Amino acid sequence: MEAKSARMTDWRLLVPGLAAGVLIAAAAWALGGFAPLVGAPVLALAAGVFVANAIHTPPAWRPGMDFTLKRLLRLAIVLFGATLSLNQVLRIGAGSLLVLLVTILLALSLTALFGRWLRAPSGLTNLIGVGTAICGATAILTVGPIIESKEEEIAFAVTTIFLFNMLAVIVYPLLGHVLGLSDAAFGVWAGAAIHDTSSVVAASFQFSEPAGQVATVVKLTRTLMLVPLALTYGVLHSYRKNRQGAGGGVRVNIVKIFPWFILWFVLAAVMNTAGVLQGPILRSASLAGRFLVVTVMAAVGLSADLRRMRAIGLRPFYVGLAASVMIAAVSIVLVGALAD
């Protein structure tokens, strides 16, 4: 009885933040039809940022916002999986591997180079590097404890990456149209170059639904690379500590860091391939997934603390900016070369 009561209490804690995100998303969804070039995700993001910094979000909203950013985003991705066939998932994932490997290696090396040049703290530079290379805040929060980063370094890196995620949702679709990219090319570019999964999905579906499907697969393929990267950082950090005589190895829990929701995405694609899911269900899944993405963008905006971003200072910002611009440029060149 007590356990049931606790679960009910937990759900009640989620309601204020969930309701705020859904209300902002509904308004953005309605207005998005009048401004298709801007789109509902960008409108929801802008409204969330305004509320967070002009009106301020009450602490009671935080549990619901966190739930939206984590659980509802994953649900949206699984729903998008239901609109794809398994053959599409495998073909797109395999076809994007070269672009992903090159961009990940460049993101890590360029961030380290720019960080050293700007004399930014090495621990913070490493975290910005993994956030740029793999999957934004998720990668930072995974690798940070492995390399024993300070809490303030993790917070700074997450906030820096967060800023570029917000900009990507606005800038990438506009650049894609200016450059005349095809749906497939934009999907690969967004999935390979934009940091966080939520921003990849929002930017790519804003461009077009086919682009969003491609970008989702590319991004999930990229997210899987967090596992070997985290293991590599764990081994290197342990080796460095032993060389310095500090002793003590770092354990990496693969079960904990593995993105299990990707398996649900693949299962949804398998069900579609097997014919279990029919037309009306597929259309409903696509529509629900896109609305959830707008809701996630509202939660992203509500989480934006512009004063905290200003407090970080410019050096980490410059490191992230340089790496982000270089990765965007290199990945678009690779996408164009492979398309030819």
Oligomer kind: single chain
Overall form = globular
For the termini, the CA-CA separation is 63 Å
Number of strands: 0
Q: What is the helix tally?
A: 17
Overall average residue pLDDT: 84
Characterize the structure shown.
With 340 residues, the chain is mainly alpha-helical. It is 82% helix and 0% strand. α5 (97-117) packs antiparallel against α6 (122-135) and α8 crosses α17 (314-339). It is globular. Residues 1-9 have low confidence and may be disordered.
Outline of the structure:
Helix content is 82%, strand content 0%. The chain is mainly alpha-helical.
Essential attributes:
340 residues; mainly alpha
Task: Present the secondary structure layout.
Layout: H1 2-32, H2 40-55, H3 62-81, H4 86-95, H5 97-117, H6 122-135, H7 137-146, H8 151-178, H9 183-193, H10 197-207, H11 209-224, H12 226-243, H13 254-257, H14 261-273, H15 279-302, H16 306-312, H17 314-339
Helix pairs in contact: 1-2, 1-3, 1-15, 2-15, 3-14, 3-15, 5-6, 5-17, 6-7, 6-8, 6-17, 7-8, 7-12, 8-10, 8-17, 9-10, 9-11, 9-17, 10-11, 10-15
